[in-house]
Every structure is written in C-alpha cells, then in structure tokens.
Write a structure and sequence with these properties.
By secondary structure, this protein is mostly helical. The chain is built from six helices and three strands. Helix content is about 60%, strand content about 10%. The protein starts with 14 loop residues before the first helix and ends with a helix.
C-alpha cells in the first residue's frame, strides 16, 4: 500500500490556511465592532488619506494601502458617495484627480480609531504579550 498524500501534508499546519483562518477571525471581530460604519478596507483607505495631510492621487493612495487600481477606484467611489473624501482636478495634470478627506471623514476616523485599536487587541488576545509583539514583527517581515 502506497502512502497517502496526507501522510506528509497537514492542512492545519500550512501557513496559508492558518493565515486565512486568523484573517477571517480578525475580519469577524472588525465587522462586529465597526457596526457597518466603515469596512476594514475603507478604514485603511481613509486613514492613509488623513495621515498624508494633503491631497494625493488615486494611484498613490492605492499604493499606500496595497490595492490595485480597480479596487481602490471602488473604495474611493463609496467614500466619496458618503461625503468622507472629495476629489478635485490636479492643477498640474488635468487628467488626474487629487483626493483629500472631508471634515466628516476626519470626524468618522477619529471615532473609529479607538474601535480599530480594540479590534487589533481582540485579534491578538489569544497571544501572550511578548507573542503579540513577535507576531506583528513577523508579519511585517513577511510583507
């Protein structure tokens, strides 16, 4: 009898499977805590835009949050529809638009920051304090 492929491969020990499970847990916590105010992707997009403290192009914003052009376009459209960001023509390049946060966007971000800090804390809660720091450092190293 030949060995089964599962003799040497354990799905529950594979990094991709484990990362996906951890991500799903994180997203469930995030969804519950954010109560529909923003998605995690919208939060990170708005955060980066506010953090820049000035208008940025949609392309640059997409790079800042590691999103491809079609994805960032959809996120930007939804944030604009909600009045959280605004766009204006770039005075130096009429083909390009510059994005900036609105007062409403900055206010919502201020409200969501402590919630997202809680999401991170709850996501890492199963770990010991030294493991939390190690996890973040290892994930940074991998990305």
């Amino acid at each position: 009898m030949s060995p089964s492929p599962s003799d040497s491969y354990r799905l529950d020990e594979q990094v991709g499977f484990l990362l996906r499970r951890a991500y799903q847990r994180h997203m469930a916590i995030c969804s519950e805590r954010m109560q529909g105010k923003l998605t995690a992707v919208q939060f990170s997009t708005l955060f980066r835009l506010v953090e820049e403290e000035g208008p940025v192009s949609q392309n640059a914003l997409g790079r800042m949050v590691m999103m491809d052009a079609p994805t960032i376009k959809g996120v930007v459209s939804r944030l604009k529809e909600r009045g959280l960001i605004e766009s204006r023509a770039d005075p130096d390049d009429k083909r390009r638009y510059l994005l900036s946060s609105t007062e409403a966007g900055r206010a919502l971000l201020d409200e969501m920051l402590p919630i997202m800090q809680g999401v991170t804390a709850e996501t890492l809660d199963p770990l010991e304090p030294h493991e939390r720091a190690m996890m973040v450092a290892l994930l940074r190293k991998m990305s």
